[in-house]
């Protein structure tokens, strides 16, 4: 072999290229990956044997014999994504390509006995999988995502869920997962650097470079909610001052709306002190839409501050696509999208490379769950970049490796 790339890396790369391309020939794979024809042939043989990939049709080639095309077998493997936050639990069942086969939402976790949560999740995962008629043998595992940097609504470890379901579980944060959800859904349009700006109960960002999450040394990269926008600003729960979240995050907006008697009434927040941050934020956005001036001003201000924080992020990571996602953006994207576009248009008008594309996710409220399932697909099928993982030399003989 001309290149010193271990076999697992070749397999990961080939799978990813086939997924991205839809259909591709072996020759196409060789030129897209830089791997030798012999390596491609070996890797593809393993993928065919595992029934992850199938041969379809033939592409016309210029002279010579026609080339066989390869594509993923979507129904060969499935993954479950679970997004757990204070407002509830969202589930997505995806096939091997990351396409959503089925989804489900469970509202409310606050009043629930933490001991009951794993059992409830088992029932719901079963319902999701059985309802879709998916053979459990084909399930690769469960991805579980929660908000980074805030206490989980219930204490649920990967081990608890593994024990309860008998499936391997990978964990992650909602912002990174939502970026993966956008990328795997195919809506990220082949972005080489994708920044997903996530707004749920908190604000974060997931950055992918060629589809691979950039997590930083401690998994803390993309902490957009704690970008400082005012050095003398209000204290933040992180201990610093003037963070985006403290000034204009969903929790700050809900608190400000509650502090205004008329707006609290208009938003229906009175007597609902225990409603989740997302529930409260949704109520304030509705009040803004129905003409409450204070609610309108709060949401507009949050959009402006968020846009400035996104400008900082864009200045640092230079993405070619920014996607606004998360349930907060599902609810209020119509206000945040123009604000972010305006800010980036003004700030980077003179910069090389043209304008940064900014899009609103078309499935903002389920992106973290879809991304959680994508985490499973990545870690079980293309595990090379999972840190600290020791892999056998040839996955096609040993089968996928469970990640804990
Ligand atoms: Zn902070």
UniProtKB/TrEMBL annotation:
<protein>
    <submittedName>
        <fullName>ROK family transcriptional regulator</fullName>
    </submittedName>
</protein>
<dbReference type="InterPro" id="IPR043129">
    <property type="entry name" value="ATPase_NBD"/>
</dbReference>
<dbReference type="InterPro" id="IPR036390">
    <property type="entry name" value="WH_DNA-bd_sf"/>
</dbReference>
<dbReference type="Pfam" id="PF00480">
    <property type="entry name" value="ROK"/>
</dbReference>
<dbReference type="InterPro" id="IPR000600">
    <property type="entry name" value="ROK"/>
</dbReference>
<comment type="similarity">
    <text>Belongs to the ROK (NagC/XylR) family.</text>
</comment>
<dbReference type="InterPro" id="IPR036388">
    <property type="entry name" value="WH-like_DNA-bd_sf"/>
</dbReference>
């Amino acid at each position: 072999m001309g290149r010193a790339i271990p076999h697992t890396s070749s397999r990961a790369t080939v799978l990813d290229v086939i997924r991205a391309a839809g259909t591709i020939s072996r020759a196409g794979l060789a030129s897209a990956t830089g791997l030798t024809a012999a390596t491609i042939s070996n890797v593809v043989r393993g993928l065919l044997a595992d029934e992850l990939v199938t041969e379809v049709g033939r592409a016309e080639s210029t002279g010579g014999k026609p080339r066989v095309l390869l594509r993923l077998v979507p129904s060969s493997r499935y993954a479950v994504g679970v997004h757990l936050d204070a407002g509830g639990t969202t589930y997505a069942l995806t096939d091997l390509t990351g396409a959503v086969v089925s989804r489900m939402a469970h509202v409310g976790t606050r009043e629930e006995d933490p001991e009951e949560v794993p059992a409830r999740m088992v029932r719901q995962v079963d319902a999701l999988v059985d309802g879709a008629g998916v053979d459990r043998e084909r399930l690769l595992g469960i991805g579980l995502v929660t908000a980074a940097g805030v206490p989980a609504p219930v204490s649920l470890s990967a081990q608890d869920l593994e024990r309860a379901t008998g499936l391997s579980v990978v964990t992650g944060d909602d912002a990174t997962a939502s970026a993966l959800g956008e990328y795997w859904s195919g809506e990220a349009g082949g972005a080489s650097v994708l920044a997903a700006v996530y707004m749920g109960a908190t604000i974060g960002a997931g950055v992918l470079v060629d589809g691979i999450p950039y997590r930083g040394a401690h998994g803390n990269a993309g902490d957009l909610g704690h970008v400082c926008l005012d050095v003398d600003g209000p204290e933040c729960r992180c201990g610093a001052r003037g963070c985006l979240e403290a000034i204009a995050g969903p929790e700050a907006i809900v608190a400000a709306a509650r502090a205004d008697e008329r707006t609290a009434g208009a938003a229906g927040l009175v007597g609902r002190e225990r409603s989740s941050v997302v529930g409260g934020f949704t109520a304030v956005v509705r009040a803004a839409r129905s003409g409450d001036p204070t609610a309108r001003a709060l949401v507009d201000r949050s959009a402006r501050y968020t846009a400035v924080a996104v400008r900082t992020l864009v200045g640092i990571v230079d993405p070619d696509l920014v996607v606004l996602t998360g349930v907060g953006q599902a609810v209020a994207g119509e206000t945040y999208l123009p604000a972010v576009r305006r800010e980036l248009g003004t700030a980077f008008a003179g910069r090389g490379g043209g304008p940064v594309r900014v899009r609103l996710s078309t499935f903002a409220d389920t992106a973290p769950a879809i991304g959680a399932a994508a985490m499973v697909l990545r870690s079980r099928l293309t595990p090379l970049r999972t840190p600290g993982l020791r892999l056998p030399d040839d996955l096609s003989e040993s089968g996928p490796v469970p990640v804990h």
